[in-house]
Specification:
Blueprint: H1 2-10, H2 15-30, H3 33-37, E1 40-42, H4 54-62, E2 66-72, E3 78-83, E4 89-93, E5 99-103, E6 118-121, E7 125-126, E8 132-133, H5 139-149, E9 155-159, E10 180-183, E11 186-189
Parallel strand pairs: 1-2, 1-6, 6-9, 9-10
Antiparallel strand pairs: 2-3, 4-5, 7-8, 10-11
Helix pairs in contact: 2-4
Length: 193
């Protein structure tokens, strides 16, 4: 129910609104000390009405950051490849899912994310506890579980619109909180248990 409501609100955003919010979001994200210090950042290319991430990806690359982007596997897990600029992206249509932009270069394997200093996560909402509500496919739940198994501790940051920071989202036992949310108007940090 909450996912449907949030997606309904997003569907009313215009392309100009999405671009402008993405520009503001990139400005806020680039102020994060974690991204200033990060040498490897796992990110994603936004699709549809998600907050636009391309400006942020290019700014990170310009700073000399190694940017990893996901490629969806048939079982909904994620492989990773390096982002070397807009020409390194390929639009991939996954059967029964939305078309997404993936890195066109060599695949680095699902464990490549464990080398990231920061993982930028997509989502639909985050609550006061730092619990993230995703789209429900489980891809990033697998990423977070992989990080835990590898004893890797990157900073976890979700990128959202201002209205998507809510009082509470449903959470299950396997869900993990994020360290921060970046929206076009600012950054909010969460104390992790």
């Amino acid at each position: 129910m909450l996912r449907r409501e949030l997606l309904g609100v997003r569907s009313r955003w215009t392309a100009d609104d999405i671009r402008e919010a993405g520009r503001e979001l990139a400005e806020r994200a680039l102020e994060l000390p974690e991204l200033a210090r990060g040498r490897t950042v796992a990110a994603y290319v936004s699709v549809g009405s998600e907050p636009c991430t391309l400006a942020l990806l290019d700014a990170l690359r310009a700073r000399g950051v190694r940017v990893l982007l996901p490629a969806l596997l048939p079982d909904n897990d994620l492989d990773w490849g390096e982002y070397t600029g807009p020409d390194s992206l390929t639009q991939v249509e996954h059967l029964g899912k939305m078309a997404i932009f993936e890195p066109s270069g060599a695949r680095l394997g699902p464990d490549a994310v464990t080398a990231a200093d920061v993982v930028l996560l997509p989502g639909l909402a985050v609550d006061a506890r730092g619990m993230r509500l995703g789209r429900g496919g489980g891809s990033y739940d697998r990423v977070l579980a992989r990080l835990e198994r590898a004893d890797a501790h990157p900073r976890l940051v979700v990128l959202l619109y201002d209205t998507e920071v809510v009082a509470r989202v449903p959470a299950e036992a396997h869900d993990r909180p994020v360290h921060a949310v970046v929206t076009p108007s600012g950054v909010r940090r969460f104390p992790l248990a």
